[in-house]
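Worked example 4.2. Below are the chains of a multi-component assembly; read each line carefully before continuing.
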Amino acid sequence: MMSSQTLHQRPLEDLRRRISWLILLRWIAVVGLFVVIFISRFLLRLNLRVTHLYFGNAALLISNFAYTLALRKMHFERANIFINVQISLDLLLLTYLILFSGGIANPFFLFFIFHMVIAGILLSNRAAYIQATLAVCLFTLLIADEFWTFAPSDPLFPYRLSQRLSPNTKYLVGLFAAFTAAVYITVYMTTSIVNTLRRREGELEAAIGGLEIANTTLELKDREKSQYVLTVTHDIKGSLSSIQSCLRVVLDGLLGVVAEGAKGMVGRAERRSLSLLRYVNELLYLSTLRAETDISHKEVAPGEIVKRVAREFNTGVAGKSIELTVTDGTAGALVYVDPYGLEELCRHLLDNALKYTLSGGRITVKLDIEADRRSLQLSVSDTGIGIAGEDLPHVYEDFFSADIPENRVVPSTGLGLAIAKQIVAMHRGSIEVQSTTGQGSTFRCSIPVGNDTSEGGRVG
Amino acid sequence: MNKKAKIFIIEDDPDAAEVMKITLQAQDYQVITASDPEKGFVKAKQAKPDLIILDVMFGKQEMTKGFDYAVKMKQDKDLAPVPILMVTAVNIRHPGFKFSPETDAEYLPVDDFIDKPAQPRDLVEKVEKLLEQKVSRWRAWPKKTD
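Applying the procedure described above to all two chains together yields the following structure tokens:
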């Protein structure tokens, strides 16, 4: 929808720009002509009767005002006529001015040539050649003036090329031929360059259109892929859930007492199904995050969310005797943020910290809000085993799992930090990690937030 | 505690339904199951349960059919007062369809959510709580009643 609209608007805007350019050139001409008259009269002290010149310049000025006003109300269909009229009138005015300032003795007749360049750029090829023909006719009039002198002028230059009584016919014929050739060649060259440019522009537009189509196709393919991943993981997850539930029922003794040995094996099976479930859940979450196009912001107190997630971990922390402290510097501030994203980000960072922190260690969660309320700063520090320098660049990669004993005891999905990074990226925030082996790691995130729904991070 | 309460489970996965049934029967509840929400709806009207456990998803094509039936039940005068416990798949956030029990519960006429796979202890806890509550908070849906 957007592209068809712009396609209709583009030529009109284009024409408007071109006409504005023409009008600007004419303002420069008005000033230029005035300066020329001034220099000729007062600096060069040429004996010049300037009434016609002032009249011509005034006509140019008034016509340009009229064009400026007309441009605002211009209809697309009439734009071409509008430009043609302007160029024809310009040629007539130019002829008028030259006629009363020395005729062809006045070298300003060369200005016909640049009018041809403008015509070649702005008009259709046919119209440009018609304007060229008009220019030749008007030049013929200037030559005729050499013979019959119907414009009694005080020449800008105080002599005629030819004497009034016997004009140099051969010279004038030559001048006419050269002028005519110059005018038509100029139009030919300009139009051929412009034609090439217009063709390239057309090709470029077609290419852009093609790219847009390719992009849409890619997006569709992406969505198909994500739908595929969703379907597969959903099916796997459904079965895994049922397997785990069935095993749980047996382990809980709801179907009668289970022998210790059997209980051990069923317990192993249940633990494996639980870790597989976790893996599938994270994969599912990561692929849905990547398939999403925007974030839904809600007005929430981020401090409450972070504290709630930390409370969830308290029971887990107790098993390992780790001290978990939360420092909330937001003072209950309300901001627009994606609450679910923040929750998951916090959960995955805490999960990661907990996993690599030994008993007796400390985990510190800090939440702060910038003074201008534009971003949240969340950091999770631990006194855990740290991350080896060569592993640091890879921690956010999908399925990355450092080759350390901890990961052999409790297998890592390798997706937790990839999810954290994805959430931060969706909010157009940043995440960084500092770590010293044997001393611990600190993950710092900065998440832009909004003060109303229209602000904050957006994807795309 | 109302140990003889009647609980109606609508769940298309027979294994998941069976596990919930065994878990609840172990707590002396009466349990009726249905695998198809349409038939389940008719059956529930006759059975007059004290609680309905409704799965959010029924098959791949109709991922939110459970929501539709929750609404349909609230529009039915017999079923409107019955609390609904909705079984959700945690972290399922489809593109263009976002749902989280924490933030979106207010848009759905269900009284509580339980994540899949439903852990027995969690399930029993939530069932007990809803049975104590007796009447759905969404009896007069779309208005909240408490």
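Take a moment to check your reading of the output against the notes. Residues 120-133 of chain B form the longest helix (14 residues). Residues 19 and 120 of chain B are 9 Å apart (CA to CA).
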